């Protein structure tokens, strides 16, 4: 009988025994913020990330990512400074390989649906050695390596939703892509935090560098502060009623926008005090669009900057 505190072996937990693992490669994709943060890319540039984790050979380099079995389990390093925690992003069939114009060689793939509910939710503990030696782990040709993963890759936790694989970082450290924002407003931990404050927030167009400053306040107890405002962006057309954001279109915003928090207020702060700070941030960041600006870089309207009243 397994003790209540005994580690849960991940491969066994998802139904893969020693014989089945012979068909698999395990790929542990490390993270280096200086050139590629894999977890950030999973949400903000998902297609690019998936192409990267299925790359066999980069231009001008030796082959580092050969997948020599029919299937692969893909993991991302959860935190750049911790090489023991890995976020599961799926199990895949490897179909064939192709070469891009720049010389990159990569694989076509197809996800195995039965494991998809665990994507970006299951986090495992596994101590990877330094260097390339355990970047791609062929479990079909290496019995010792197969036994090592069976015995020592253990389930650390299963997050409620993809965003909560990472804990709430504190208001001053919130910086979400649109896709991360969608997951955040559906997660209990994030909902509780975002619903507990009023705020001045920032939207950044990562393609152009343009800004939009907004405020979120609970007027007459009808809303839950920042949570309510950000839910409007998620479930509406993502514009919040701003003309220029609406002109960009929903798809552009989903692909390019980032959401962060400039300043927070308790739920008793007056709407006017929050709007005053919103205007201060608009002026500080130059986010108000004026038609005669030589180099405009803001999406806020003049009317938004002039608004001093709350109905």
Structure write-up:
The protein is an alpha+beta fold. It has two domains: 10-158, no CATH class; 165-306, GIY-YIG endonuclease, CATH 3.40.1440.10. The chain has twelve helices and twelve strands. It has helices at 10-13, 18-21, 38-44, 46-53, 143-152, 178-184, 188-194, 225-235, 243-248, 250-256, 271-285, 302-306; strands at residues 24-29, 55-57, 71-79, 82-99, 105-111, 122-125, 136-138, 154-158, 175-177, 198-205, 211-216, 257-265. Strands 1, 2, 3, 4, 5, 6, 7 and 8 form an eight-stranded mixed sheet that branches. The chain has a four-stranded antiparallel sheet with strand order 9-12-10-11. Strand 4 and strand 5 form a beta hairpin. Helix 3 packs across helix 4 (46-53) and helix 7 (188-194) packs across helix 8 (225-235). The longest helix has 15 residues, at 271-285. The termini are far apart. This is GIY-YIG nuclease family protein. InterPro entries: GIY-YIG_endonuc_sf (IPR035901).
Short description, anyone?
The chain has 311 residues and is an alpha+beta fold.
